[in-house]
Amino acid sequence: MPASPRASGPGTNTGNVIRDSMMGLVPETVEAIIKLNSDVWRQSLVSPSLLETLRLRNASTVNCVFCKSVRYDVARADGLTEEKVAMIGDGYEASALAPREKAAITLADAHLGHPPGISGAAAERVTAAFDDAEIASMLVSLIAFNFASRAAVSNGGMPEDPLPVTEISVISAGGAVA
Amino acid sequence: MPSQATSINLDQHLAKAGPAAASFARLWEALWQQDYLPPELLDLCRLTFARMHGDRIEMAVANPLVESTHADASLRQAVLADTALDAPALPSAWRPVLQFAEYYWVDAQSIPDAVADMVKGKMGEAGLVLLIEALGCIDGRIRAARCLRDLATHRSTKEVAHAG
Q: From the CA of A81, how many Å to the nearest CA of chain B?
């Protein structure tokens, strides 16, 4: 992985982390990406803390140093603690996470796996915990999180792992669009 | 509702998720309406991922967002047969893009500087960014479609068991 980013941002300082990133170089897609991120955090059918569980599981799988260090403000407001974050790792099955949280991680691992897919037991667990619309909502979120973290890794310039934990507001990442 | 989810018809399967799914569908459409990378080339990236996933349903599906020519058809077959990188019909500017896609699929951390530099040299910095965005969307859609197909199979198996 290169020490410096392969593509730099557009040189703007709009206050929106997506628009000011390399993605700002492609005006044909950047507004759609901002809107997607906003809708994932504001309009998903599962709670922000559950979304953050999915996002952090993805961040570890992809090994995105930036993504692992970030905590969204809405997830913390929804009850996400660092104690809970520590449970999202490999030992999650034996952790004190709720069954619904464990089922969400099962779905994340199914989506992120090589190969992707859901075995019978995993499917039973996911469908027992979530309805079809919630599963669809989490899949949209997982795609968005994986898209962003793999974009960061592909672009290179990752700092040393770990970075200090940093809170980020949904407004700075998704804009004020409702 | 289409019977088998693929990256191509995924938005219909995800629509029940509401506004986020609609936003994701708009991003998908935008990826095919830009001037940095030809849609035919992006579709070859999709087929590259389908082959690497061993996803025969994805490999068989055509992309209505791409106007195909006879030449494109032979390249698509070459991608599916894993011979495209040696195919004389593959434009030289497209080769590093397909190589980049293969490295991306294996592990985004593994992309060599030389390959990324070639993409940037041929397609420009914005072209490299668009490619990274497109690969993320394509792979995510193939993965989600596979999960939805497995869930549909699980559901129908349960229904048969209950009926029996």
A: 25
